[in-house]
Structure formats: C-alpha cells, structure tokens
Write a structure and sequence with these properties.
Oligomer: single chain
Helix content: 25-40%
Strand content: 5-15%
Strand order of the largest sheet: 1-13-12-11-10-9-7-4
CATH architecture: Alpha-Beta Barrel
Order of helices and strands: EHEEHEEHHEHEHEHEHHEHEEHEH
CATH topology: TIM Barrel
Distance between the termini: 22 Å
Radius of gyration: 20 Å
Number of helices: 12
Largest sheet: 8 strands, parallel
Number of domains: 1
Number of strands: 13
C-alpha cells in the first residue's frame, strides 16, 4: 500500500482536524491532574462519532479520510497524554515556553491590532515539564484510533485512510526540559517516542500524516532570530523527524507543512522558497503545503524552479481555514491545473491549508470541501479532457 495518486483524476484529501461534536469536545477537555477525566466514557463515545465523521467526509467528496482527530485533545498537546516522564507544573516565567508566541514576529509590527483583537491563550493548569526519561505509553490510544477509523471505513468507498500525528519539533514547543542535558537531546527523545506511534499507524497499513507547523513556525516564534540561526534551529528538528521515521516506509508518509493556523496578518512568514529544501529532506512520498491564502497563494511559482522528488506527490492547499469565504470551484480548478502543469497531473492531489475545524461554523467546513471536490472534477475535465469516472 502507498499514498494515493491522481492516476485517472484529481484526488482529494485534507489536513486533518474536523469539527468535533460537543460531547467529544467536552470529554477531551475535561481534565483531572492534567489527564482526561473520563477516558472510559470517551472510548465508548468515539466509535459512533468517528463513523459519522467518516460518512460525512465521503458525502462531501473526499477520497482520503481520517477520524477528524477526534481522539486527540488538540493536535499540539495530544502527545502529552501518550508519553511518561512528564509532570504538569506552572511554567517558570524565564522559560521560553512561558513566552512562546506563534504571533511574536507579527506582534512587533502590529501591536495595536493584536491588543485589540487577539486574546492570547492562558496557561491553565501549567505546562508539561520533562522530569524523567521520556517513554511512549500511547499504545492503547493509537490502537483505539486505528481500530475506530478502520471500522468506520469498512465497506465504504474510500481511496485512503490516514492518521494525523505530531512531529518532534512541534511537540517540543510546549514541553519544558528539566531532565535532558540539551534541548536537542529532548527533541530526539520525543522522536524515539513518536517512532512507536508511527510504526503502529503504518504497521496497520494506514497513511501516516505528519503535521509539522514547527518547521516554518520557528521563524515566527523567535523574532530575534536571523536566517542563519533559523536554519540551524530548523535543521536540527528536521533531523529529529528523520530519526523518528527510521524503519517507516516512505510510501506511507505524507508531510504537511503550514505557517500556523492562527488568524492574523502572517506578514512575516518565512517564504516557502527558503525552506523547500528542508521539507524535501523528509523521507515521504507525499508533501502537503499551505498554498491558498493571500500570504502563500503566489508560491506555486517555487515549483517553476524546484523539482518535486522522484515518485512524490504534491498536495497544495486549494481551500483554506483563513476565511469563511467559500472558494469557487473554478478557482480551485485553476489552482490544481496550474500545479499539474508544473509537476504532472498524476502528482497533484487537492488539499487544504490547515484543518478546517478552524472556520467559523461546521457548515462552512463542509461547503468548502464540496467546493474542493467540484473543483477537482473541473480540473480533471481540463487535464484529462473528460469528466471523472
């Protein structure tokens, strides 16, 4: 098995996070001592919720489906529920995690805007502190997620099943190091833990969807970094990701890279051209890249000069979470045709900038997916000269 390809038509997928039912959201976020308060109830409710979200994805025209990330409290922090060696404590105000801010670079340029419209999340209940060797303990949770997704998709017309997972650098953002001698040692310890999750997913024959906002986010988080320092920062964390992928078949790996899903100016995002070489050092068969919003829609031009790795597919974001405007199918088709003419029609899959759970209402999410599916059909007609089969 391998990640799907657009052999006969433009296929469709997405970046992972989908609107959660209220009960699932409540069960995930109700905590005691930093842990899910009622895991048994959560486990009982998840199969029905996952079945419904798989059916909905198929209904709106998605070929590649997942469980909506329903088994994860949120994408950034779910790893903390699956690793031992951590204690929840109030963070030291001197730690960089205490000051960690995805909008730091923008906030320097637009302080009045952020003061007026952006409420920074509070650090409720503290942050995870690494106080002992990290060890992966999430075997039961990942097995549950795999089983629920497989059961929900059984007998249904889907081309691909995928499970979104974190990357070492992104998990490190919110983990304070009180044990390992260096930050690098911590990142590689996280990588060893995540390798076990990666093996479970690909061992079940599912696509491993790696979500790595850390790669470009480092530039936004540390506004005093120059580009040389940023490259050193990013290269170490990409090396840790490659370490986490040891023994994982690249043909079952999709890497998703975005500039963070927060709504804001994104005026100083690092350009794709300056990180594309790092992205392509990750052993994957598919690369999903944010590409539809006003800050990054122009970056299709990167592929006029940069060659897609042999055998790989490109999943450009052709619809986005950044606005509740619903993209017109003709615009979606135009974007897909443009990429297809650069990298080959069989190598392009329609995707999203980030998880569409971030739009203003679930109805907007589903309407966007319907627009993407229709745009993929229209692109197929242009590229193959016929309606999709």
């Amino acid at each position: 098995m391998a990640t799907m390809r657009s052999t006969n038509r433009i296929m469709t997928t997405h970046a992972g996070s989908l609107p959660r039912p209220a009960l699932i959201r409540e069960l995930l976020t109700t905590r005691r001592d930093g842990r899910i308060a009622d895991p048994t109830r959560l486990d009982a409710e998840l199969p029905g919720a996952v079945n419904a979200i798989v059916e909905k994805q198929i209904e709106v025209g998605l070929d590649s489906v997942n469980d909506g990330e329903f088994g994860k409290v949120n994408f950034t922090n779910y790893v903390m529920d699956r690793v031992s060696g951590l204690e929840m404590r109030p963070p030291d105000p001197k730690s960089y995690q205490y000051r960690l801010n995805m909008i730091a670079r923008d906030a320097r340029k637009f302080p009045a805007y952020f003061e007026a419209v952006y409420q920074r999340p509070t650090i409720a209940g503290g942050l995870p502190h690494c106080v002992a060797p990290l060890s992966y303990t999430g075997h039961q949770q990942v097995a549950r997620d795999i089983a629920n997704l497989k059961a929900a998709a059984h007998g249904k017309n889907v081309a691909e099943l995928f499970v979104p997972t974190n990357t070492p650098g992104t998990a490190e953002h919110w983990m304070i190091n009180d044990y390992y001698p260096t930050q690098e040692a911590l990142v590689f310890a996280i990588a060893d833990c995540l390798n076990e999750e990666y093996r479970a997913i690909t061992g079940a024959g599912l696509v491993l969807h790696l979500d790595d906002p850390d790669l470009p986010d480092g530039w936004n988080i540390f506004p005093d970094m120059d580009k040389a320092a940023y490259r050193r920062y990013a290269e170490m964390r990409v090396a840790a990701l490659r370490h986490a992928l040891k023994g994982i078949p690249p043909e079952l790996v999709r890497l998703h890279v975005c500039w963070g899903s927060f709504h804001g100016p994104h005026h100083d995002d690092i350009p794709l051209r300056e990180i594309i070489d790092l992205i392509f050092t990750v052993p994957a068969e598919s690369y999903s890249i944010e590409a539809s919003n006003p800050c990054h829609a122009h970056e299709w031009r990167v592929f006029e000069e940069v060659k897609l790795p042999d055998g790989a597919t490109l999943v450009p974001g052709v619809i986005g979470h950044f606005s509740d405007f619903i993209e017109h199918p003709d615009l979606v088709a135009e974007r897909l045709v443009r990429y297809a003419r650069l990298v080959g029609r069989e190598n392009v899959i329609a995707g999203t900038d980030c998880g569409l759970s971030r739009v203003g209402h679930p109805s907007i999410c589903w309407a966007k997916f319907e627009a993407m599916a229709e745009g993929a059909r229209r692109a197929t007609k242009v590229l193959w000269g016929r309606e999709p089969a």
